[in-house]
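HOLO CASE FILE
Compound: aspartic acid
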Amino acid sequence: MIKVVKFGGSSVASAKQFKRVKKIVQSDASRQFVVTSACGKENKEDYKVTDLLYLCDAHIRYGVSYASLYQSVKDKYLRIKKELKLKTDIEKELNQIEMNMKKGVHTDYLVSRGEYLTGLLLAEYLGYQFLDASEVIAFGFDGEIDMERTKELFTQKCNGKGVLIPGFYGALPNGEIKVMSRGGSDITGSIIANVVDADVYENWTDVSGIYVADPKIIDSPMRVDTITYNELREMSYLGANVLHDDAVFPVKVKNIPINIRNTNEPENPGTLILEDCKELDLENPPHVITGITGRKDFTVITITKSHSSTEVGFLRKILSIFEDYRVSVESVPSTVDTFSVIVASETIESCLYEVLGRLKEEVKPDDLRYEDHLALVAVVGRGMKELAGISGKLLSEFGNNKINIKVISQTADELSIVVGVMNQDFEKAIRCIYEKFITEERSLS
Ligand code: ASP
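Model generated. Tokens follow.
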């Protein structure tokens, strides 16, 4: 059994958290490959090291002193070293970075140092080999990860068992450091899991997995035990974000399960993300609904033109206008001669009137209107497939709670139903779905 374990920033925020990490790693001999984020916040008043480094970079660019910001970074690592009585010459590393900053550094190099420094200390503390991500995570010049090359480098450089790799960065073919997008250590963990053919990719964070609904809206919502990659994608697209979106692909192609775990509650089994949950579902059938998610602030543009449904290319004509302004379209619910185009408000804010003008001119609609402040609520669940009455139950629940539905859409895979309501009804909608489909169902079973 091989496990790749990735620890997020809050899991390595202090010496106390390092101790928890060590306990977790040592309690299971298969946890041989560790990936770490940079130290995160120790408490609400604290700052993430990566954020501080981005700020240092901005200060350098504007010629403003970054001394006190960098001092906070230094203090953090010196404190961890001292408290854990480590020997790594972290002072030398910190000074080297400072010297490079004086010479003028490249942003990606500077902001990747959080993972690098955390990795050095954690590797010593665990007694693991430190494998610098710039030596093994290979980017192509197109900015994409070169999996073949990464595998080749990893096989050459890895001593075998007990290896620690800092997350979030790698190197371009010319050796220059390149970082992934924010939260990218999740991706590094997933790449390593792919490369070593892991049996499980454990992603340790500060929540006990994925919740059925946002805990900011529902008090102590249920944890999701198992979820498919596709359900997760639906959930995270509209709001729930426990894992970086791009972390799914490298493990999905090899069917490696991801287990989201809580460093502060290691006995909790967390959430297991799988390609296919059928086997587990036989023993432990899921709720009809796996999760409820959503986002506020969408704009709906509604175009009506008689006989447009039979006009070949009509929809393409509409969509190409959005494409010209690089506005991505979320959904296009339609009836006979009416099409509603739903887009995130922030993406169309700067060009709304131009888009409306072009629609008027090029599509010549009988009626054209737009509305802001729409929220999309998605009900996601593999258990809904071929089960009659789910949308009926959902819609009547909205009716009972006097929530007006602006749009509805569901695709034929029946994995999710998306309902558009006004922003002000968003939380109420999520609460009433949770009550009907989770609380009531639980009290019946
Ligand atoms: N430290 C990086 C960030 O804050 C990457 C990560 O934590 O995954 O975005």
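CASE NOTES: The chain has two domains: 3-207+242-254, 291-444. DSSP finds 16 helices and 16 strands in the chain.
CLOSED: yes
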